[in-house]
Amino acid sequence: MYLRDAPGTHPPLDSPGYKSTKLRHPLQRPVLLPQKLTEITGPLLGEGRLGANDNDLTAQHAGEPQGQRIIVHGRLLDGNGRPVPNSLVEIWQANAGGRYNHVRDRWPSPVDPNFDGVGRTLTDAEGRYTFTTIKPGAYPWQNHDNAWRPAHIHFSVFGRSFTQRLVTQMYFPDDPLFDQDPIFNSVPDPKARARMISSFDWSRTVPNWALAYSFDIVLRGRDATPFEQEVDDE
Amino acid sequence: MSTPSQTVGPFLSIGLPWADGPTVVPEGTPGAIRIVGTVFDGAGQPVPDALIETWQADPDGHFDHPDDPSGPLRKEFRAFGRCPTDDDGNYWILTLLPGAIPGQAPHIDVSVFARGLLHRVVTRIYFADDPSDPVLSSVDPGRRRTLIAQPADDGYRFDIRLQGDNETVFFDV
């Protein structure tokens, strides 16, 4: 069994500050689904999904993208503190000017022909992942008057079970745009909100090359099983 | 202390879709069924910026996972499907019918992600109203039909209504 997250960890689907939730959040209460085999298993997606340079978003074109080169790294862990190895991590993001390479993004900041803003990698045996990318820019949106999204990178992870599937956003430390952002603030618990903010990581900066941020992702933990209990007792 | 969920946002389609995402089995696989559907919002409008993911047992009721010790797996069966909705809110998955699992009727677990959904919502596709299934029978009979796929050309239709009249039953996993 996978443990339920503490109240306040995840945003309520009905979050009026984020206007797009209005017609998209279910009105009925969700039905409790006892975790069965379908839920405690899940896709273990591996090597076949990766191409060359998928973890280096600055090396996917002949030229280099504009912007501040950064290393983004961290660990994928479960709630018991155990690393999740060999697990697919997918990211997507805006370019240095805050523009997504998407036909529906109309923000008048130029597309960068050398930046798709899409990355994939697998965690290693200790659950570690690393991307090289460009620090994304903030961008305006239509949610409320003079609304701006804080700079962020979208992360998609699977863990080891259907119950652990998570899509989140990684933010950057001390962003002055946090206070007015209804998506960031949709997470009720301020401590949980803080877990979406990466840390500047001097130790992983590369001289004359890149700054660095670290971002650990924690998925739901598992109930101790009798087998694990025996191991703990040793 | 889990990391919170956030929305996939409006531009999920640059990052999440895979060219082979909808084909859980390759085109032309004997016995393959196509599941098609439309995602609707509370105003009855199609949702063009959603993503559907599916996870299921193979036709013998086995999961491609070490926590299922039940038996050997089919080749060329990924068990996992992923499809973004198109401009009309439509998605499709090409797969094999899942087998029954001990104590449960055949079903497919579904995650729905979208702009405006701060957390995925989870539902199940069933292929018949089987009162012996413990999950199906826990659902209000008046809403149970939202979980039953309807036969359609070369497969099934499973529409997803996020809100309002005939709102799909979503599960807390």
Automatic annotation (TrEMBL), chain A:
Keywords: Dioxygenase, Oxidoreductase. The keyword Disulfide bond does not apply. Residues 1-22 are annotated as: Disordered. PROSITE patterns: INTRADIOL_DIOXYGENAS. The keyword Cell membrane does not apply. InterPro entries: Intradiol_dOase_C, Intradiol_dOase_core, Intradiol_RC_Dioxygenase, PCDO_beta_N, Protocat_dOase_a, Protocat_dOase_b. Residues 72-100 form the Intradiol ring-cleavage dioxygenases domain. It comes from the Bacteria. Belongs to the intradiol ring-cleavage dioxygenase family. This is Protocatechuate 3,4-dioxygenase beta subunit.
Automatic annotation (TrEMBL), chain B:
Pfam families: Dioxygenase_C. It comes from the Bacteria. Keywords: Dioxygenase, Oxidoreductase. InterPro entries: Intradiol_dOase_C (IPR000627), Intradiol_dOase_core (IPR015889), Intradiol_RC_Dioxygenase (IPR050770), Protocat_dOase_a (IPR012786). Residues 19-164 form the Intradiol ring-cleavage dioxygenases domain. CDD domains: 3_4-PCD_alpha. SUPFAM superfamilies: Aromatic compound dioxygenase. Belongs to the intradiol ring-cleavage dioxygenase family. PANTHER family: DIOXYGENASE, PUTATIVE (AFU_ORTHOLOGUE AFUA_2G02910)-RELATED, PROTOCATECHUATE 3,4-DIOXYGENASE ALPHA CHAIN. This is Protocatechuate 3,4-dioxygenase alpha subunit.
